[in-house]
Amino acid sequence: MNIKDFKNKKITIMGLGLHGGGAGAAKFFSQAGARVLATDLRNKEELKESLEKLKGLPIKFVLGQHRSEDFINTDLVVKNPAVSEKSKYLQLAQKNKAPIDTDVGIFFELCPAPIIGVTGTKGKSTTASLIAKMLAQKYSKVILAGNIRASVLEKLSEIDKNSLVVLELSSWQLAGLRPHRKSPGTAVITNIMPDHLNRYQTMAEYIEDKKCIFKWQKSKNYLILNYDDKIVRELNGSAKSQVIYFTAENGPLEEIKGGFVKGDKIFLKKEAVCSLEDINLAGQHNLNNVLAAVTTASLYGVSAKSIKKALKKFKGLEGRLEIIAQINGVKYINDTTATTPEAVLAGLNSFSAKQGIILIAGGADKNLDFSQLAEKIVKKVKGLLLLPGTATDKIETALEKIASSEDAIRIIKVSQMSEAVQEASKLAATGDIVLLSSGAASFGLFRHEFERGEEFKKAVSLLKNLESGI
């Protein structure tokens, strides 16, 4: 496959989306000389940001609907990873022998550089970013791309054979590698927990898509696995590549070839890489992310000194236990990317028992189980603000099953984020934390989780101004 192959071809982009991936793909093919038609079920107003990125390009748009003819009379359909394989329009394309691909699948065909792929239910963004920061200490051309609100294809022009590419890959993006039978030369899996079970019929299906990150690796390739996650640990039996484990909990076991924790330090083999105090990220889950990154960077010859330097500079990513403000002794923390109950649990476990937590949660359910989260809420949360949605109903039901009259949790249902923040501020006392960590998708109330986080920031900023008398 070559970029020149797309010149004058009719290409249908299915799903412009809101995170930049569809828009990036449309831009790439348009600039490659293709005749591009972009179609999305959302309307012009909802897609305003994506359309702005494509201004001035000779692209046709069909919005608010999909048309059958755009999936029949085309040379290629490039589908957004979020579009289900069961879509009647994709089935129509298949019936009419129109090829279907994804931006990630095409990227793997065109990328001239080695690829390090990172996946996991949670932690993949932080881990991928950390790996890129560490590699940049030694290599001059490190490209970070993937599931980061942009199309990987937009990065192709920056990449040559001397580059190193770090890709964050979702399960849906990994599924797009099947037609190509390609996996990254180095694959990292942070963890696997229930997620997207509104899309997958079973957990086994979800895991099968995750396995695409190493399914077509060769014996000289590397697979870096979290030993502390039973599902991940047992994937080694399916791997043809060399497996390297990291662990935060099991110390220097014989099978641990990657990073591990001993005392208050992170080690690689017998060498201390850094102290736990060098890590500016809260929570056990982030310690695992650091260990994954340390293990990967060492594989590429980055020294312990350089790894430590990158770690000390890294302050975390937007929407991941991100401290927004401190008002009247109360910390406001944005953890909007916690879209599963397990991710909320990880966030709650990051705080000490002495810290009172006011939790803003709820939203659209992904067919997940909230029983464990409910138990933690009863033990650790003193105030719960619930945003509208199907997950909210499940959280309430789970709490009703276990909460006794002695469990003094104040539960308030709110209709919007500004109301949630206002009510949270009334419940919070000095030393408390107001935490946005929904455990659910954002659909219905927000376009995506990042908009939810932005609305939280706006509401906190308004509150801060009111308290300051501005």
In short:
The protein has 470 residues and is α/β, with parallel strands linked by helices.
Number of domains: 3
Question: What order do the strands of the largest sheet run in, or round the barrel if closed?
Answer: 7-8-6-9-10-11
3D shape:
globular
CATH superfamily of the largest domain: Mur-like, catalytic domain
Which value, in Å, is the CA radius of gyration? 23 Å
**First-to-last CA distance:** 59 Å
CATH architecture of the largest domain: 3-Layer(aba) Sandwich
User: Which structural class is indicated by helix and strand composition?
Assistant: alpha/beta
Examine the coordinates and then state which fold CATH places here, giving the name of the CATH topology of the largest domain: UDP-N-acetylmuramoyl-L-alanine:D-glutamate ligase
Uncertain stretches of 5 or more adjacent residues: none
What portion of residues belong to β-strands? 15-25%
Mean pLDDT equals 92
Main sheet properties: 6 strands, parallel
Protein name: UDP-N-acetylmuramoylalanine--D-glutamate ligase
InterPro entries: Folylpolyglutamate_synth_CS (IPR018109), Mur-like_cat_sf (IPR036565), Mur_ligase_C (IPR004101), Mur_ligase_C_dom_sf (IPR036615), Mur_ligase_cen (IPR013221), MurD (IPR005762)
Function: Cell wall formation. Catalyzes the addition of glutamate to the nucleotide precursor UDP-N-acetylmuramoyl-L-alanine (UMA).
Main location: cytoplasm
